[in-house]
Amino acid sequence: MPKTYDQAYFDKWYRDPAHAVGAPAALRRKVALAVAQAEYYLGRPLRNVLDVGCGEAPWRAPLRALRPGVDYRGLDASQYVVARYGRSRNIGLARFGQLEHLRFDTRFDLIVCSDVLHYLKPAEIRAGLAGIAGMAEGVAFLEVFTSRDGVDGDLEGFHARAPEWYLRAFADAGLLPCGSHCYLAPRLGRRIAALELARLPAGTAR
User: Fold this and answer.
1) Does residue 104 form part of some domain?
2) Is the pLDDT of residue 204 over 50?
3) What is the domain range of residue 146?
4) What's the structural domain count of the chain?
5) Residues of the chain by 3-state class (helix, strand, coil), percent to 5
6) Torsional sign, CA 75, 77, 81, 87
7) Which listed residue, of 80, 88, 102, 155, carries a Cα 20 to 30 Å from 74's Cα?
8) Is there a domain that residue 206 lies in?
């Protein structure tokens, strides 16, 4: 039976002290990290953010606390989320894989996809990553956990893939790893130094 991302799900994993993981202070630090990375590589203040698989949009408030004028747009596959928060938090209905064909009238300085990819099937991941690479102006924050990580929280439907699987998928999409779950848009590739990338350059002797 498919998982249902309804109010009961979000109440359990985000508000119930017996199950919720991640403190508000930790989220604020994560948001600050992603904003700083994007602004560093863009060389200017953050203008807009696309939050994919945003749930109830927990990133929105800390983003706006840091950058009050930022244009925030969320996407989620939950009917509950869009019905309840779609208008007030600017959340549209979309699955991750639909990013392959979904486009907006702008590219995004920061694209966020936090705690989503490890619940998806390979074909949907690859399709969505192609869309992220096409829409990213600056940095994509792709927080994903692997078979080498100790994972807390919702394990239903969790795919414990090797880190190398994701690195290949990100590389195939043209995304460049710069550390701490951050990946540079392909168009930034010529503007960065070799050691800013969190990988060995191709052909490097070991």
Assistant:
1) yes
2) no
3) 7-188
4) 1
5) 40, 15, 40
6) positive
7) 155
8) no
Work out the widest C-alpha separation in the chain, in whole angstroms.
54
Nearest to 133 by CA among 89, 182, 185: 185
What is the pTM (predicted TM-score) of this model?
A: 0.92
In this structure, what CATH number is given to the domain that contains residue 137?
3.40.50.150
- For 48, the 3-state DSSP assignment is strand
Q: Write out the two tokens for 93.
A: 């209905």
Is 2 within the bounds of a domain? Answer: no
Query: How remote is the C-alpha of 168 from its chain's centroid?
Result: 17
Give strand ranges (E) for 53-135: 71-76, 91-93, 108-114
- Using the predicted structure, report yes or no on whether residue 153 has a pLDDT greater than 90: no
Q: Does residue 197 sit within a domain?
A: no
